[in-house]
Specification:
Number of domains: 2
Oligomer: single chain
Shape: elongated
Order of helices and strands: HHEEEEEEEEEEEHH
Structural class: alpha+beta
Number of strands: 11
Distance between the termini: 77 Å
């Protein structure tokens, strides 16, 4: 007569056999198999997806896009006098990172907090082109040709009335009501072509954003919740470094 404990042990052995068969595959189960043999015959699996995996780039006009609220209405004026009106955005979920030379720190500004961006020329000069006198020579000769180099800085006027001035590198996209799309790069320095003059280089002069009540409420909530300071500054204060 078989005891209950016998039935329990028999069931446990059956479960163990099934588990081992699932690991090494049907027909390969053996009680005396070594650990190395199990590892050699174990099926290959893919790593689980982490919830911290980077998100794909979100198109600003995609449905249910988190970054869609960062597409602003307004107009962009170029140094040539041309004005482009329509939808304006930068890299989604990425703030403008402004370098403040005076205090040697970055300041991150959300596009939803900006009323206007004004570009200003810091310097403009012609750079001479040189070439070596001959192969292997250290002597350079002026070719008589120049190219323009212009340095810019940008003033960000915020919805709450504050202003931030510094250099920045950021893409600006404009889509007009007719469906045309334009791309410009805000940057601290631009170089033109050989023979070109500094006043002939087109650049973004002004970006004006339409400020709706919703943006006013957002700016007010953010300003009340957290001062607009650089995260490095917060880290330094918190850790006493």
């Amino acid at each position: 007569m078989q005891t209950p404990s016998h039935h329990i042990n028999q069931k446990a052995g059956t479960v163990l056999a099934i588990l081992l068969a699932a690991v090494v595959g049907p027909g390969n189960y053996a009680v005396g198999q070594s650990l190395q043999s199990l590892l050699n015959h174990a099926p290959v699996t893919t790593a689980p997806k982490s919830k911290f995996a980077p998100k794909p780039h979100l198109h600003p006009f995609a449905k249910n896009s988190v970054g869609a609220s960062a597409v602003r209405k307004g107009w962009v004026k170029l140094s040539t006098g041309q004005i482009l009106r329509g939808s304006i955005w930068t890299t989604q979920q990425t703030p403008f990172r402004i370098w403040l030379k005076g205090i040697k720190q970055y300041r991150d500004i959300d596009i939803r907090l900006v009323r206007e961006i004004i570009g200003k020329i810091r310097y403009a000069k012609q750079i001479r082109q040189y070439k070596f006198q001959q192969m292997g020579s250290d002597i350079k000769l002026y070719t008589g040709r120049t190219r323009p180099r212009i340095g810019y800085q940008f003033t960000f006027q915020l919805i709450n009335g504050n202003t931030v001035t510094g250099t920045v590198i950021a893409p600006i996209y404009i889509r007009t009501p007719g469906g045309k799309q334009y791309f410009y790069l805000l940057k601290k320095r631009i170089e033109g072509k050989l023979g070109q003059k500094t006043d002939s280089i087109p650049y973004v002069q002004t970006i004006h954003f339409t400020v709706t009540p919703a943006y006013r409420r957002y700016a007010k909530a953010v300003t009340r919740r957290l001062p607009l300071v650089n995260w490095r500054q917060l880290f330094t204060k918190a850790h006493g470094r």
